Structure formats: C-alpha cells, structure tokens
Amino acid sequence: MRTGFGLEDPAVPPFVTLGLTVVYTVFYSLLFIFIYVQLWLVLRYRHKRFSYQTVFLFLCLLWSALRTVLFSFYFRNFVTANTLGPFPFWLLYCFPVCLQFFTLSLMNLYFAQVVFKAKSKYAPELQRYSFLAIIWFDLRPKLQHLLHFQLLQFAFTPSNELSSLQNFFLPPPLWERCTKEH
C-alpha cells in the first residue's frame, strides 16, 4: 500500500536485500573512488579544468555519491529508505536519473562537435552550419525529455484538456489514445 512518496512494504524481500545492497554499495563506492581519483589527476597534471571531461566526471561523481548514499542508507534500514519524505525521496531516487540525462546530453553534444569537426575538415562548406547542428544535437534530447515530462504530467492530471505545448507535441492519434485510457 502506498502512502505519500514511499512504500509501507519493502520493495525487495528482506532475505534478498542484504546481498544486493552489499553488492551495489561496494560497486558504487568503487566507482566513486575511481572517479574521485580521476578528478584529482586532472588537477594534479594541470589539465583544462572546465572541459567536457571534467564536467562529465563531476556529474558521474555526484551520481555515484547519491547512489552510494542511497544503498548504504538502504543497508541500514530498508523500511525507512522506502518511506522517505518528498525532498530526500527526490534527491536519492529521482535526481540521479536527471543527472544521467544531463550526462547523456553532454556526451551527445561532445559527439556532435567531434563529428562536425571531422566532417568540416574534408568539406569546409559544412563549417558554417556546424553551430546550428550542434545546437540541434543539444536541443533534441531536451525536447524529447520535455515531451516525456508533458506526457507524464498529462497522465496524472484529471482534465482532458491539453496545453498548447502538449498540443504541439502530441499528434491527434496519440491524443485519442491517451484520452481513451482515462
């Protein structure tokens, strides 16, 4: 039975919880240590401090830290971990997913820059469109994320009216399908 943002019953049976929690806690702790060492090496060897590499490593460090905290907290008391308040629930369960999205967007942007830099070497006329293409590669995942957010918001609203933004993203057949499910 759901109450608020957590669950009354544990998500995983107690006999499975210990083994999985130990494995995940060790894995995320090792990942955290590895990324932390990588960031120290960037500082030690005086690499460019604000680059794709350091931002990517920092996002991964924050993600692994939140996951380590979640699973170590889950290791101590899994019932309390399932009945967190709104902000801790969002921070430990939802925010890491947002960090993964930001990391994927960053990798997508970096890939777009590398591809257009390589292509413009052999076709210089592409150089003038590289900025627009990089903006497109950066905005496309964000628009897709916005669409998913709008669909999620629509799924939890009782009204069948669409905002103009939802109307822009939802074609009529999808709109009819969503309204039939309500």
TrEMBL record:
Its main location: membrane. It is a multi-pass membrane protein. GO terms for biological process: bone remodeling; negative regulation of bone resorption; negative regulation of osteoclast differentiation; positive regulation of TORC1 signaling; regulation of autophagy. The chain crosses the membrane at residues 20-43, 55-75, 87-111. One of its GO terms (cellular component) is lysosomal membrane. It is found in: Lysosome membrane. InterPro entries: GPR137 (IPR029723). Keywords: Lysosome, Membrane, Transmembrane, Transmembrane helix. PANTHER family: INTEGRAL MEMBRANE PROTEIN GPR137, INTEGRAL MEMBRANE PROTEIN GPR137B. This is G protein-coupled receptor 137Ba. It comes from Xiphophorus couchianus. The lineage of its organism: Eukaryota, Metazoa, Chordata, Craniata, Vertebrata.
